[in-house]
């Protein structure tokens, strides 16, 4: 199996794990501690961020499916992106978790600028609490992603699959 295919597989695995971990973080912090939304609001959140609250409400129960699909589509796509760039950073001596911190900030900025561009029904991205909460939640996505990608690609290298 070639290096690109191995990286994509590692990225999909890491992206899926990161997507689950970020939801666990949101359930504990956003729901349990900060009371920002009800637990059932987590899977619907993607639909509301992308299409606006009006569409989210109009979708009814389908918003859970659409929101979950959006969440994991992006989690898998960002996971593949990380896994494809990781080998270059590893060769330059970067630690995976350091790259994960930079990647978390980058993807938060890219995704939320895109959300702000497509509509005006989004959180106040100039609010310090929204910014910090967004960056921290994305760390809970990227750190497991980075650790899985690093381990999967290192294991492949050690087995002689390079």
| Low-confidence segments | none
Overall residue-averaged pLDDT value: 90
- Helix and strand pattern: HHHHHH
Q: Radius of gyration in whole Å, from Cα? A: 17 Å
- Tell me, briefly, the overall form: globular
Number of strands: 0
Whole-number tally of structural domains: 1
Helix fraction bin: over 70%
Given helix and strand content, the structural type is mainly alpha
Count of alpha/pi helices: 6
The description of the largest β-sheet is: none
Brief description of this entry?
This protein is an all-alpha fold and about 160 residues long.
List the helices and strands and how they pair.
Layout: H1 3-33, H2 41-51, H3 53-59, H4 62-91, H5 96-118, H6 128-158
Task: Explain what the structure shows.
With 162 residues, this protein is mainly α. The chain has one domain (3-158). The chain contains six helices and no strands. The chain has helices spanning 3-33, 41-51, 53-59, 62-91, 96-118, 128-158. Helix 1 (3-33) crosses helix 4 (62-91) and helix 1 (3-33) packs antiparallel against helix 6. The model has no long low-confidence stretch (mean pLDDT 90).
């Amino acid at each position: 199996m070639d290096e690109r295919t191995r990286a994509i597989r590692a990225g999909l695995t890491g992206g899926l794990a990161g997507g689950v971990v970020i939801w666990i973080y949101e359930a504990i912090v956003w729901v349990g501690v900060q009371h920002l939304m009800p637990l059932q609001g987590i899977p619907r959140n993607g639909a509301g961020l992308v299409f606006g609250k009006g569409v989210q409400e109009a979708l009814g129960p389908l918003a859970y499916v659409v929101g979950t699909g959006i969440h994991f589509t992006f989690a898998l796509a960002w996971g593949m992106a990380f896994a494809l760039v990781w080998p270059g950073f590893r060769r330059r001596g970067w630690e995976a978790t350091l790259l994960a911190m930079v990647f978390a900030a980058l993807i938060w900025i890219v995704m939320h600028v895109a959300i702000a561009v497509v509509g005006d029904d989004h959180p106040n991205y100039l609010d310090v609490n929204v910014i910090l909460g967004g960056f921290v939640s994305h760390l809970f996505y990227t750190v497991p992603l980075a650790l899985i990608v690093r381990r999967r690609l290192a294991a492949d290298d050690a087995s002689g699959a390079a």
